[in-house]
Design goal:
About 25% of the residues are buried. A hairpin with a 7-residue loop joins strand 8 (about 190) and strand 9 (about 195-200). The protein is α/β, with parallel strands linked by helices. It starts with 7 loop residues before the first helix and ends with a helix. The chain is built from 10 helices and 14 strands. It holds the Pfam family HTH_1. Belongs to the LysR transcriptional regulatory family.
């Protein structure tokens, strides 16, 4: 039996359509007609020798075989693009100074920096993890070339900043419900005329001030009339995750980079206020970056957008 050789161009159409949720949009993005993309998908099913899609309402849904092939398609396309970048930038030299917040350290840093280092071995990368205000200050002082950070809208964006995504702020607590001390949300009926429900202050886990996110959360609780108390504060995000996992209280963050030992909490169940979205921003030190910084910026943008498009926790909110 002849070995099947999957067409990378077809796999790219397949992967792009799934990521965008529409093969019409994929066709537009890839500069092809919808009929051409449709023909590619039929070719892909023929090559795979199995059904990759099932009809659901007016749309399509991947079968188990389709999900399996999609995972391989991502790997094959990533390797192809990495090889292409390596050939284009084989002589790329210099240094890139990258700053990012703690949320992205485990989620993005290993994959992006590993891919960059393999493609551009002559480029030296200097990375630092810090809070958003510190990263912006380092950019202004010329100590960083790029920074990936949250923007809560408390300051105007620099002229070379690019909004990458808008993400929801969510209430977060321990993975195991029995770790939560339920006393603070247990409502007690007060006896007598004018009786009303009351509850213990919400134990709040937040980063040390100054922190724009902290101010957003406190303002939302105060507007909603929800009493709160500071249960735990730290300059370290990993310390906040540990405190939330232990059930010391609730914290607030986006779905990006949530560790396995915490989970999002349904705010409606606990009568907690809705929270706004915040922006994820890629800051550049200058309008026209040097080639190494420009290439790393492209990889960061690609990795973030793919993570947001494919991670179910973002779609759920």
């Amino acid at each position: 039996m002849a070995q099947v050789m999957f067409d990378l161009d077809v796999l790219r159409s397949f992967s792009t359509g799934v990521a965008l949720g529409s093969y019409a949009r994929a066709a537009e993005k890839l500069g092809r007609s919808t009929s051409a993309v449709s023909a590619q998908l039929k070719k892909l099913e023929a090559q795979a020798g199995t059904v990759l899609f099932r009809k659901v309402g007016r749309g399509l849904e991947l079968t188990d075989a389709g999900e399996t092939l999609l995972a391989y398609a991502h790997r094959m396309l990533e390797l192809n693009d990495e090889a292409s970048a390596a050939m284009r930038g084989v002589d790329l030299q210099g240094a890139v100074r990258l700053g990012l917040q703690e949320d992205f350290g485990e989620t993005l840093l290993p994959a992006v920096l590993g891919r960059f280092a393999r493609a551009h071995p002559k480029v030296r990368i200097e990375a630092c993890v810090a809070r958003s205000a510190d990263l912006r200050e380092r950019l202004e002082l010329g100590q960083l070339d790029l920074a990936l950070a949250w923007d809560a809208g408390d300051q105007p964006l620099s002229p070379y900043a690019e909004r990458v995504a808008r993400l929801p702020l969510l209430w977060i607590g321990p993975r195991s419900p029995d770790r939560i001390d339920a006393a603070w949300w247990t409502e007690r009926e007060r006896r007598g005329p004018g009786a009303r429900k009351s509850r213990e202050p919400l134990p709040l886990i937040m980063l040390d001030a100054p922190c724009p996110l902290r101010e957003i959360v406190i303002a939302a609780l105060d507007r909603a009339g929800v009493p709160w108390r500071r249960a735990f504060a730290s300059a370290s995000l990993s310390a906040l995750w540990a405190a939330a996992s232990a059930g010391l209280g609730l914290t607030v963050r986006t779905p990006f980079g949530l560790p396995a030992h915490v989970r999002t909490i349904d705010r409606a169940v606990l009568s907690l206020p809705a929270l706004p979205q915040i922006s994820l921003v890629l800051y550049r030190a200058q309008a026209r970056a040097e080639a190494p910084a420009s290439r790393l910026a492209s990889l960061l943008l690609e990795a973030v957008r793919q993570h947001v498009q494919t991670d179910a926790s973002f779609a759920a909110h």
